[in-house]
Design goal:
By secondary structure, the protein is an alpha+beta fold. 16% of the residues lie in helices and 26% in strands. A hairpin with a 2-residue loop joins β5 and β6.
Length: 124
């Protein structure tokens, strides 16, 4: 459930848990799980308005959801979040300098650019 998705009914600020669509050719109102994104011809409803939904005379209401209560994060969501935090906290091993940079010293840096100089041994 997205915290930004609210019930489409006027003056209702409850979170949406279902999506209502119409099939005019079959005279059917379909109440299903919350759509992954808001569509212009669908209505997001809270649990209260979804339970009270009625259709015009002669229309059928097809309910595809059994549990209209808003759900919190599942165990899988929490486990994935914990794994992501662990991965981000892992120290990154220092990489060895490339072979071309051995014997060189960084003398200046600006942003991602570096100036390298050779460390030449004094000759006798």
């Amino acid at each position: 459930m997205s915290p930004a998705r609210r019930c489409s009914r006027t003056a209702c600020d409850r979170p949406a848990v279902t999506t209502l669509t119409y099939v005019y050719a079959d005279q059917t109102a379909v109440l299903g799980p919350l759509a992954t994104y808001a569509e212009p011809h669908a209505y997001d409803l809270c649990d209260k308005h979804a339970e009270r939904l009625s259709a015009p005379r002669g229309w059928e209401v097809l309910r595809l959801v059994s549990d209209l209560s808003p759900r919190g994060p599942s165990d899988d969501d929490l486990l994935a979040l914990a794994n992501a935090v662990r991965e981000a906290a892992r120290p990154v091993p220092a990489a060895a300098p490339p072979a071309a940079e051995e014997g060189m010293r960084e003398t200046f840096r600006r942003g991602h650019l570096r100036v390298l100089t050779h460390d030449e041994a004094p000759t006798s």
